[in-house]
Design brief:
Elements: H1 5-8, E1 18-21, E2 24-30, E3 38-44, E4 51-53, H2 60-72, E5 82-84, H3 90-93, H4 96-103, E6 106-110, H5 111-126, H6 129-140, H7 147-150, E7 163-165, E8 178-182, E9 191-195, E10 200-204, H8 227-239, E11 245-248, H9 257-282, E12 286-287, H10 288-294, H11 306-325, E13 329-334, E14 337-341
Domain Metallo-beta-lactamase: 38-250
GO molecular function: hydrolase activity
Pfam families: Lactamase_B
Length: 343
Amino acid sequence: MSERDVRTRRAYSAQKVTDLGDGVWSVPVPIPGNPLGYTLVYAVESPTGPVLIDAGWNHPEAFQALESGLGQAGISLADVRGVVVTHYHPDHAGLAGQVREASGGWIAMHEADAEMVRMFHDMAASDDRPRMQTDMLRRAGASPEELPAAIMDAPTPPAIPDVHLADGALVDVPGRRLRTVWTPGHSPGHICLHLEDGDRVFTGDHVLPGITPHIGMYPYDRTDIDPLSEFLTSLDKIATFGPLEALPAHEWTFSDVAARAGEIAEHHEEKLTKLLASMTEADRPLTIWTAASLMTWNRRWEDLAPMLRGMAAGEAAAHLRTLEVRGLVRRTGGDPVTFVVHS
């Protein structure tokens, strides 16, 4: 997340169920104990029942808010036709399984994120996540003292989806035209959704009005992926929609999705430029952890809790990987992995 996050975030208490017109409703669903506050769940009406875009965090308070909010829109959970999950993260996919149980509807997401969900179910069964995280943090250069507190708790894996959506596919919403737009970066299978009969774009976490989504790489030292470059390419893809209204999963709806996509792309290019300058000034191989400490976050590195430093390291790793792919830095060590400016 960028340094602008804290200043632009709006409280959950200020949100309300909203009729956005053309059979689209916005329902704020809280994320208890999380500073992000809430997820905006959207309901798209159709003759055969509404389809939800995302579902919210798996928590009793969130489920109650979702059910109550839909009720204010005149929608019963039992009538929900299906849930389209923009990506597998728990504040989006967490309640999809409970909605399916209550309605008998389907859950849809992109195959790349469906694969992630299956992997998390396998990991939960093996209970191998703490060891894997410890090894990843150590290879990134985290100190032994930081390792225990930097390990993240694993939320309950979301429900395995019934339907896989490919790029360009129409979602099963009779009487509407809701088209899948694959936008990897924030997650491998993140999707936006173009409501063609209403000329709006549901942007999930891909394009947000006041904050930038987390673009991380896990494990940090992978060489087979480049999520930041994928994200930047996906921003270009969304920019082709021009000044359409954006309906994001957090914060508030806004106009001109293309302009905001351009701002976010510029933000990351600036971060890449600053990181490269910091590495040039250091003039020595840097671990991922040290590189992260040189980047700008929403608070000073010294003030970040170990778990947040771990997330920052994931984002630093993604930026280092893009610099590596562009031929601007190279790896000089493996345990811990280190990077140096390419000579």
